[in-house]
Design goal:
Elements (H helix, E strand, L loop, with lengths): L1 E5 L3 H13 L4 E5 L3 H9 L5 E2 L2 H7 L2 E4 L3 H12 L6 E4 L5 H8 L7 E6 L20 E5 L6 H13 L3 E5 L1 H29 L3 H7 L2 H6 L7 H10 L1 H23 L3 H21 L1
Parallel strand pairs: 1-2, 1-4, 2-3, 4-5, 5-6, 7-8
Antiparallel strand pairs: 6-7
Helix pairs in contact: 4-5, 7-11, 11-12
Length: about 280
């Protein structure tokens, strides 16, 4: 089994690290536009060889797309045009537009639209973790669009990462992830910006930022190159989620302004109950 990873950042690097020790791949090929990422992966034995996209697509049995979602959209037709029996699996955080594009191609049944629900805020292969995917959920969207062999191979691949598999409609995926993942990144970015605008002295931020603030802004360290296209590809759902969040913020604002203790208690007690449900599922 020869695996070709396009995009050697944190996700691509973690895939390489995990595959190296899973006995799933006999050889791991890699490509990244950033030469320093490729050099790091070669020096640290994450990949066996660096190849061009054209070379890797011809040689590999499985092609993994671990790039930002806008790059995935560019790569899909280029790769599918070259396919014979190879399987292409993407790792993108949005699925609707990606699935729609693949479905229009004659060889689209060899493309598996997937989303491993694993990640950290740090970027680049230096942040790669071998256990990143263990016991996490991998989503495969619209499996009815796949031929049997590509789908079965994708299942085996995620099993080798020790992930739990679920299947979803691509539109449902993007709607749910807007609230459960994408929105949290925007909130983290916004909170970091808000605090920085007020606390313009770096010393105050360092000394006064407590554990609650640090945990809430953790995602503000995420890569703009990765998340910018996610927000734009999932625009409709993101705007809906933001409107709802802003309306809840306004409720807190009004209750604080009017010194409405009962209103504040109701909002926080309801949040406590929801938190318990979410915390049980994590």
């Amino acid at each position: 089994m020869k695996v070709f990873i396009i995009g050697l950042g944190m996700i691509g690097g973690s895939l390489a690290k995990t595959l190296r020790n899973s006995n799933f791949a006999d050889e791991i090929l890699g490509f990244d536009k950033a030469t320093e990422n490729t050099a790091f992966c070669l020096e640290n034995n994450l990949i066996d060889r660096s190849v061009s996209i054209v070379e890797g697509a011809k040689e590999a049995d499985i092609i993994l797309l671990a790039t930002p979602v806008d790059s995935i959209m560019e790569l899909i037709p280029q790769l599918l045009d070259q396919l014979e029996e190879q399987v292409v699996i993407d790792m993108g955080s949005t699925k609707k537009e990606i699935s729609k594009l693949a479905a229009t191609h004659p060889k689209g049944c060899n493309f598996v639209a997937a989303h491993p629900m694993a990640g950290i805020e740090n970027s680049g292969p230096t942040a790669a973790l071998e256990q990143l995917f263990t016991d996490k959920v991998a989503i495969i969207c619209n499996p009815e669009n796949n031929a049997r062999m590509p789908l079965n191979l994708a299942k085996l691949f995620f099993k080798s990462l020790k992930m739990k598999l679920i299947f979803m409609d691509a539109e449902e995926h993007d709607r749910d992830l807007a609230y459960l993942s994408h929105l949290s990144h925007i909130l983290s970015f916004s909170l970091a910006l808000t605090a920085y605008n007020v606390e313009d002295k770096e010393r105050n931020i360092f000394n006064l930022a407590g554990g609650g603030f640090a945990s809430t802004v953790r995602l503000a360290g995420s890569s703009a190159a990765m998340w910018n296209p996610v927000f734009l590809q999932n625009k409709t759902n993101m705007l809906e989620a933001l409107e709802l969040y802003i309306s809840n913020l306004n409720l807190f604002r009004e209750h604080i302004k009017n010194e409405n203790k009962e209103g504040l208690n109701q909002l926080m007690n309801k949040s406590n109950a929801i938190y318990k449900i979410i915390n049980q599922s994590i």
